[in-house]
Design a protein that fits this description.
The protein is an alpha+beta fold. Among the domains are: 1-83, no CATH class; 157-353 and 535-587, no CATH class; 354-522, no CATH class; 631-762, Response regulator (Rossmann fold, 3-Layer(aba) Sandwich), CATH 3.40.50. Helices cover 25% and strands 22% of the residues. The strands form ten sheets. It has an eleven-stranded mixed sheet, with helices on both faces. Strands 2, 8, 9, 10, 11, 12 and 25 form a seven-stranded antiparallel sheet that branches. Helix 20 (871-889) links the parallel strand 40 and strand 41. The protein is globular, with a radius of gyration of 31 Å.
């Protein structure tokens, strides 16, 4: 949470002048040019004001020039709201409740029964050896100091006799998708005569599933529904009739689920096969409420946002036509002895509601192609025609979706195609359409500027037929082209049209229908899927960053009601026999001790280095008077300063002096670094960057780029270009720094040390180690650690954007080097096709880089990015590929390695909040090392939550670790003589926590264990190579060819087997 508001950034000039292009009014928007509220970046149509303050405080003033990135601090805006002091969440009634003792009793009883029947229930060690899906928990962890924490869960208590009946929408004829399908499902549930007697007993996901409290007695599976628009009384005369096939799937007994969850005898082989289906049915029930309420907006199936929060602290202006709303995520979860609902605070970006022309002005930048992409799919209601009401007296709005702005390629196949005088974004005076001699059938949008009609309208009065143009008003010719401006000025003079604003197409490319922006009102609650700009991202973070106690209060005070978890808002709870707790639960937790971090002693002779233990405090430490464990040799390097504005000679000289200081820091921290070759000063142009690489000598090891802007969000295109050239075309390591931070006088030694970490890793060094006692058997040098992740295209990505899989692996027991391997695959496919070849390459690295004589005895895989529903894919498809790789590399007559696979989840919504002051850090979060494996988990699944890091701001998110295969940790317990194998749980937690401290790019513990974290960064690097594909292309596909060409990248041979991605 920001404690001070900043104004908008000054423009490109060193005095704030020369900002981005102006918007649709006021011409070009520059920097402040003497005005305290100028806004350089983006140049809005009014010239722009400064950014807002903290969302509790007053507005910040405009941010002034600031010169070069080293020219002293720029002017700041006024102070926003002050950050509230950290505190512990206090529930209603004061003291936090104690964890449910019955849950703990069942957990312990199940474990005792499992150990008593170990050979029968687990098959000894062999159950894991044959790759059984989800090996049972060998025991609960006992390491660390016991504490109690809040969890963002509340209990769902069903009536003991609750039975739900599931139905599948097996087929809809003719096919229907999108918003129309949602409306069709609404009509089915609310108005189909066959279901009239079941009103109040049926819920739906408005897509493909029905859940009923009563069994449906249907004469036939096929139900006919005539489509009509939302709010209308009667369907149109030519409305489509749909046949919906409703097929019974399963009977789901909540009592059976509770029997399974509360059983104390897992050895009896009890299993509830319908658990996932029951959880899905309960989630459909909860989400039905939000999808049915008019005052709520939803994102996906589980996020709900109140539309009544305008002007409150639950909304925030993101700039450029978007605002953020604070809402809530909900999901039903099964846990030992109970059913829980996970409720978390969530934030979404939404389009600014109201007049469309105001949204266009707010968007600001006069980039018509960008505006067309921004507005695509936005729903509007038209206001130029008289309003209608239904029988209930409710206004029936005429709704339409924006397809694009008017383009000169629209309607090319029509006999009289429209005349559009710009490639995209023409105004109403520059868009003309054909008017027939006889009144034609006009656009499907009543009153919209009509498009080419192929035949005169038929006579007669049919309900629902679109009105003909009829006799033309004075000034509008017939049998010729007329502009949208003239048409609306004559026919709808009450609509005041700005000729500068683009016309929108609410039809499609083949059959366009045009409306001026002033005739459209943007509907509320529309989620914006497009990637946020740098400034919008900063504003979203500023809004979303809140202390954990604040989120806990929001969940209890408004979240339960907003999400329909209160009978006050959702009467169906009582109808279905469900009760929901009105408070957060508490669960047992433990505080694991922090491991020691090891460096080389600064005071010792480098020829005989000694290890030095660094003091760790709440997951953080510094590198004062210490050196890297293994130093890399940097022989040939240089630097490049990229300027976004006109520079002075003094500024250039200051860059040179700062680089010289940084060179000293490289050697101080342990590297053997030669002085850099003469640097360069270039403009912020991609062509200038390309020239730098073209002119670099063949033996150049590394280039340091000093970038303009405030942070990486200001340099995405530049950063992507640098990394693509360096990694794939020239084989030169690159390190990018933000000039304002690199040149700052504030703690330069620490900043230089952090940058030096990257230098050393890229060139093969080893920065730090972790206390060997915490790494246990891994320190023996016979275990390889592997990290795997897959990144997928975003919603706005190009259709040809692939998914990319990344794999990293350790090369020795020091865990200092993690070379990376990348592979493209079919988009949105989670299974890694090239897994076998990728692991084979890492096994070769184990011998080549690690200098081992034999392959590892153990392989521990941390698999990132897999959802719960995909665990089986990992077991059935990926683990066999890993075994195949080993079979091809290991001696045919020798033993195969033992394999453990742990899923790492970071996109979940579980959060924990401390219950006592002594258990929280200075930001109000749980301390680094907090682990939870009880209360919100299932005893039969080996999983745990670990918050390994110190949270810098906001509410901490623990990582979720789930074991899907274990042959390593149980084997280690067996070697120790521990027959019940329960120590494997402690061992896995200790090793995983220690790995969070071995992430060598920072002097902090990280939120994911190092193998998974590196794999995530590796995949993100691949996205940079294909930024045109992942960040989308223009609507007309003008850069589609270049974007598709990005798929042909290949890592340069000189960077293979290195940590190029750091």
């Amino acid at each position: 949470m920001a404690d001070r508001g900043r104004g908008g950034r000054g423009g490109r000039g060193d005095r704030g002048g020369g900002g981005g292009r102006g918007g649709y009014r006021g011409g070009r928007g520059g920097g402040f040019q003497g005005s305290p509220q100028g806004q350089g970046q983006g140049g809005s149509f009014r010239g722009g004001g400064g950014g807002g303050g903290g969302f509790r405080g007053g507005p910040g003033g405009g941010r002034g020039g600031g010169g070069g990135f080293q020219g002293g601090p720029p002017g700041r805006g006024g102070r926003g709201g002050a950050r509230p002091p950290a505190q512990v969440y206090t529930p209603r009634g004061g003291a936090p409740p104690v964890p449910d003792a019955k849950v703990t009793q069942v957990e312990d009883a199940r474990q005792k029964s499992r150990k008593t029947n170990l050979s029968a229930a687990m098959g000894g060690l062999q159950l894991a050896a044959v790759g059984g899906f989800m090996p049972p928990r060998p025991g609960y962890g006992t390491g660390g100091a016991p504490i109690t924490v809040f969890a963002n869960y509340t209990q769902l208590i069903p009536s003991s006799d609750l039975t739900l009946y599931g139905y599948d929408i097996a087929e809809v004829t003719p096919e229907i998708v999108g918003r129309k399908r949602i409306q069709l499902m609404r009509l089915l549930v609310q108005e189909a005569p066959e279901l009239t007697s079941y009103h109040g007993h049926i819920v739906t996901d408005f897509k493909s599933n029905l859940v009923s409290r009563k069994k449906l007695e249907l004469a036939t599976e096929a139900i006919d529904v005539v489509f009509k628009a939302e709010g209308t009384d009667e369907p149109l005369e030519r409305a489509t009739k749909y046949t919906i096939k409703v097929k019974y799937t399963k009977t789901l007994s909540v009592g059976d689920l509770m029997t399974y969850l509360s059983s104390t005898n897992p050895a009896a082989g009890q299993q509830y096969d319908n658990k996932l289906e029951m959880i899905q049915a309960l989630n459909i029930f909860l989400n039905h409420y939000a999808r049915s309420a008019n005052n709520l907006a939803t994102i996906g199936a589980s996020k709900t946002f109140s539309l009544n929060s305008a002007g409150s602290q639950d909304t925030f202006d993101l700039g450029q036509g978007l605002h953020a709303i604070r809402g809530f995520f909900t999901s039903v979860r099964a846990a030992t002895n109970r059913i829980l609902v996970n409720v978390n605070v969530s934030h979404g970006a939404f389009y600014q509601e109201g007049e469309l022309h105001q949204l266009m002005w707010a968007y600001g930048d006069r980039n018509e192609m960008g505006l067309a992409k921004f507005l695509k799919g936005v729903r509007v209601r038209t206001i130029h025609l008289p309003t209608k009401t239904n029988k209930k007296g409710e206004t029936v709005h005429r709704l339409k979706s924006i397809f694009s702005l008017a383009k000169n390629k629209d309607g090319r196949k029509l006999a009289h195609p429209p005349l559009v005088k710009k490639s995209v974004g023409a105004g109403p005076c520059d868009v003309e359409f054909w008017i027939h001699d006889q009144p034609p059938q006009v656009s499907s949008v009543p009153g919209a500027a009509p498009t080419q009609a192929t035949a005169p309208a038929k006579k007669g009065k049919g309900k629902g037929k679109p009105p003909a143009v009829g006799p033309q008003p004075a000034g509008v010719g017939v049998g010729k082209y007329v502009s949208v401006y003239d048409y609306f000025r004559s026919k709808y003079p009450h609509i005041k049209i700005d000729p500068k604003l683009p016309v929108v197409n609410v039809g499609n490319s083949d059959n366009p229908s045009y409306l001026p922006a002033e005739a459209c009102i943007v509907l509320p609650g529309q989620n914006a899927n497009a990637k946020l700009s740098g400034n919008q991202t900063r504003n979203m973070i500023r809004f979303a960053v809140r202390g954990p106690w604040m989120n806990a209060e929001s969940i209890v005070n408004s979240g339960l009601e907003t999400a329909g978890l209160s009978t006050k808002s959702n009467p169906l709870l009582a109808e279905f026999g469900l009760q929901v707790g009105n408070s957060l639960i508490t669960v047992p937790a433990r505080q694991l001790p922090e491991p020691n971090v090891m460096y080389r002693d600064f005071t010792k002779n480098n020829a005989q280095p000694n290890s030095k233990v660094v003091r760790v405090s709440n997951g953080s430490w510094n590198m004062d008077k210490i050196k890297f464990n293994k130093s890399a040799l940097l022989r040939n390097w240089s630097w490049v300063a990229v300027w976004g504005w006109k520079r002075t000679r003094d500024q250039e000289q200051q860059v040179t002096r700062t680089v010289a200081k940084f060179h000293e820091a490289l050697n101080t921290n342990g590297m053997t670094a030669a002085a850099p070759h003469a640097g360069q000063h270039i403009e912020n142009k991609l062509t200038d960057v390309t020239k730098v690489f073209n002119e670099a000598p063949a033996d150049r090891q590394l280039l340091l780029f000093i970038l303009p802007g405030r942070d990486k969000n200001d340099n995405t295109a530049l950063y992507s270009h640098i990394k693509t050239l360096g990694d794939t075309e020239y084989g030169i390591h690159t390190v990018c720094v933000i000039g304002s931070k690199f040149m700052s006088d504030k703690s330069p030694e620490q900043y230089f040390a952090n940058v030096a970490l990257k230098f050393n890793l890229k060139l093969g060094g080893n920065n730090q180690g972790v206390d060997s006692t915490r790494l246990s058997f891994i320190n023996q040098g016979r275990t390889m650690l592997v990290g795997i992740d897959v990144t997928h295209p975003s919603p706005g990505s190009h259709n040809d954007a692939p998914s990319v899989a990344g794999m990293v692996a350790s090369t020795d027991q020091d865990l200092g080097q993690w070379p990376g391997v990348l592979s493209q695959q079919t988009k949105r496919q989670e299974k890694v096709d090239a897994l076998k070849d990728m692991l084979k390459e890492h096994l070769d690295n184990w011998k080549r880089i690690g200098r081992h004589q034999a392959y590892p005895d153990n392989i521990i895989v941390y698999r990132d990015g897999v959802s719960e529903g995909q665990y089986q894919i990992v077991v059935d498809q990926e683990i066999p590929l890993l075994r195949d790789a080993c079979k091809e590399k290991y001696p045919a007559n020798g033993p195969q390695p033992r394999l453990t696979v742990v899923i790492v989840g970071k996109r979940h919504h579980t959060r924990f909040y401390p219950t006592r002051q002594q258990d929280m850090d200075r930001g109000g979060n749980c301390r680094a090392g907090t682990v939870v494996d009880r209360g919100v988990t299932e005893e039969g699944i080996w999983d745990f939550f670990l918050q390994s890091h110190a949270v810098i701001q906001g509410t901490g998110r623990p990582a979720h670790y789930v074991v899907v295969l274990d042959e390593v940790f149980r084997h280690q317990e067996k070697l120790k003589g521990n027959k019940d194998l329960s120590g494997a749980a402690n061992e896995l937690e200790r090793v995983t926590q220690a790995l969070c401290y071995s992430y060598s790019r920072a002097t902090k513990a990280v939120s994911l264990c190092t193998p998974a974290y590196h794999a995530d960064i590796l995949c993100e690097r691949a996205r940079r190579y294909m930024s045109g594909l992942f960040e989308g292309v223009s609507d007309d596909g003008s850069n589609a060819g270049s974007a598709k060409a990005e798929k042909n990248w290949k890592l340069h041979s000189r960077l293979k087997h290195t940590m190029f991605y750091i």
